[in-house]
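Researcher: Sequence recovery benchmark, item below. Answer with residues only.
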């Protein structure tokens, strides 16, 4: 059974999606806004309550988690050793391109 409706705007039209869990609806809403796909209006519950975006705490918490996770991922990426690269030439114009060492050897032409 659906426990929450996520209401949002997409290209000027109003839509809703039903979710079994408020946390799931909040996470989907946060991702939709983060990716620029929609603007969340709020949540509606089976008992008739409708909570506007500005007052919907689980949405704000989900947005904070997205930001924190992105920050952690960026720190992890920055701490990783740089990938080994080789120089190749694109096969169409002969322009130099960096290719990770783990890419296939047939990719491009070897740079001189």
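Model:
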């Amino acid at each position: 059974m659906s426990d929450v409706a996520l209401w949002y705007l997409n290209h000027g039209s109003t839509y809703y999606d039903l979710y079994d869990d408020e946390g799931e609806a909040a996470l989907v809403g946060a991702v939709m806004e983060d990716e620029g796909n929609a603007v969340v209006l709020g949540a509606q519950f089976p008992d008739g309550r409708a909570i506007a975006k500005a007052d919907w705490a689980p949405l704000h918490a989900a947005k904070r988690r997205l930001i924190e996770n992105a920050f952690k991922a960026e720190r992890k990426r920055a701490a990783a050793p740089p990938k080994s690269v080789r120089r190749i030439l694109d096969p169409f114009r002969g322009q130099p391109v960096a290719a990770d060492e783990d890419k296939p050897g047939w990719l491009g032409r070897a740079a001189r």
